[in-house]
Specification:
Blueprint (H helix, E strand, L loop, with lengths): L4 H12 L3 H13 L1 H8 L5 H11 L2 H13 L5 H15 L2 E8 L5 H15 L3 E8 L6 E6 L2 E6 H13 L2
Parallel strand pairs: 1-2
Antiparallel strand pairs: 1-3, 3-4
Helix pairs in contact: 1-6, 4-5
Length: about 170
């Protein structure tokens, strides 16, 4: 099994149990200021200076974690770490995250059916379904769950046919 630093760091952040509001505030601070992330990720900035900035700007229950991320050189990936943290939160609540790509947004009855199917298949209590429109699919849908892609789109069928014809 391959471990990615972002996933491990996200899991560590989750296990440290900071307040959800602190994680959200920290994420929003990074989202609103690219220069902050760049400065905290820069090897040209001394660790002591980075720690001063962290102490001044971030919630107390996030400071030590962010300082360690600076020391380990993971600040370039801080947004991915926050995403991994969010995944851990969902897992702890027995919620599955899935992404649906389709040409037109489905009706509520269709999304409810998809959610119920996924609940049964994955044995979860709820499904967080993110719906994205993608006209390139031409019809049908593509569903991504836990790194697995279910492609029932016209575009996917055309690609599969092209691969069969070309012998790939």
């Amino acid at each position: 099994m391959i471990f990615y630093p972002e996933e491990v760091c996200g899991r560590v952040l989750f296990e440290l149990s900071p307040k959800a509001e602190s994680v959200k505030a920290s994420r929003e601070l990074f989202e609103s200021c690219d220069e902050l992330k760049d400065a905290l990720a820069s090897p040209a900035v001394e660790i002591k200076e980075k720690e001063k900035v962290i102490d001044r700007l971030f919630p107390e229950d996030m400071r030590n974690f962010l300082k360690v991320m600076c020391q380990w050189g993971h600040m370039d990936n801080i947004m991915d770490i926050f995403d991994a943290y969010d995944e851990e939160v969902l897992k702890s609540k027995n919620i599955l995250k899935a992404e649906l790509y389709c040409v037109c947004p489905p009706e509520k009855a269709q999304t409810d059916k998809i959610k119920e199917t996924l609940k049964k298949k994955y044995g979860v209590s709820d499904v967080l379904l993110e719906v994205n429109t993608d006209e390139a699919l031409m019809g049908g849908y593509r569903l991504e769950v836990n790194g697995v892609e279910y492609d029932k789109s016209v575009q996917g069928m055309i690609k599969a046919l092209q691969n069969r014809i070309s012998g790939r």
